[in-house]
Amino acid sequence: MAVDSDVLFRIVGTLADAKSIPGGKYTTFKVNGRPFGYYWPPTHTVGLKQTLSEQQALVAERPDVFEIQFTAGGFGWVVVQLAGIEADELAELVFEAWRLTAPEQLVADAPDWAESPPPR
Q1: Which 8-state DSSP code applies to residue 110?
Q2: pLDDT tens for residues 71-87?
Q3: Which pairing describes strands 75-81 and 66-72: parallel, antiparallel, or unpaired?
Q4: What is the pTM of this model?
Q5: How far is CA 67 from CA 37, 53, 70, 107, in A?
Q6: What are the b/e assignments for 77-86, b being 16+ CB within 10 Å?
Q7: Using CA atoms, how far apart are residues 116 and 33, in angstroms rounded to an integer?
Q8: C-alpha dihedral over 37, 39, 45, 48, to 10 degrees?
Q9: What CA–CA distance (Å, rounded) separates 81 from 65?
C-alpha cells in the first residue's frame, strides 16, 4: 500500500507546468510559480493543497494517514503519510492540489484524471 517518493515525483511530473524545486529540507511542487505541495523526505510525507471540506473529510476518515497542516486563503492543506496511501489515491490528491493552483487555461487543457492513470 505504501507509495515511495519516486512514484510521487512521477505523478507530479505528469502535470502541465508542474515543477519540483528541491530545498534544504523539503521539495516544493509549484505550478505557474505557486506552490501546490511539499515533500519532506525525513518523514516520508507530502503536504497538499485541498479544499477545506476535502481536508476535513480526509482527516476525519483516516487520521492515521491524513492530518491538518494549515489553512490559508480558503484552502486546507493536508499532510499525507505516504506509507498509508495507494498510488491512485495519491495521484487524485496531487492532481486536485495542482488543479486548485494552476491557471484556468492549464486546467481546461488538462485531460480528465480518470482517463490518465498515474505512472507506476
Answers
A1: S
A2: 988 999 999 999 999 99
A3: antiparallel
A4: 0.91
A5: 14, 13, 9, 27
A6: bbbbbbeebe
A7: 24
A8: 0
A9: 5
